[in-house]
Amino acid sequence: MGALLMLGAVLALLGFCLVGICGLGAVVNYTRWGDSTGMLIVGAGITMMVAGLLLMLGVLGYGIWLDRNRIKGPERILAPVYVIATYALDKATQSTVPYWREYPPEELRFYVRLRLPNRRQEEFECAPEVFQSVGEGMTGEAVVRGYWLCQFRPQVGS
């Protein structure tokens, strides 16, 4: 998504420069010789600029939609999963909090990184109660909805 956002910005900037430079050249060319064919390039520049802006708006809208729907979807049970990491982020600064027990839970967001049965790694947000029941290096069964970890049941024994 970041690459598409940058591509849109580059397209919009190039289109803007093309409109400015070629538009000025086309006006000068028309006043001197009466030739207005340079305005075709200005039209292409406007098209590039609009396409870049629409691409940027589309990517931003899709990102907002993904963020709002990250905890929605059907409930799935994933087993066996391996807990790679657990960490808490401060909501205000988005920085990792090493001593999360010293903060009020409403100021933090809790995350668990799991290795799924298909060997892919995914990161899930969870409630403080679920976060406290998960430890790094544990293996078990995860109940997830979207990218929200609803429950973790550890596997006991070998």
Brief summary of the model shown:
With 158 residues, the protein is α+β, with helices and mostly antiparallel strands. The protein is 43% helix and 29% strand. The longest helix has 32 residues, at 2-33.
Shape: elongated
Low-pLDDT runs: none
Number of strands: 6
Query: What's the gyration radius in Å?
Result: 26 Å
CATH architecture of the largest domain: Beta Barrel
- Largest pleated sheet: 5 strands, mixed, barrel
Helix content percent band? 40-55%
What is the CATH class name of the largest domain?
Mainly Beta
Look up the CATH topology of the largest domain.
OB fold (Dihydrolipoamide Acetyltransferase, E2P)
Number of helices: 3
Cα-to-Cα separation, first versus last residue:
41 Å
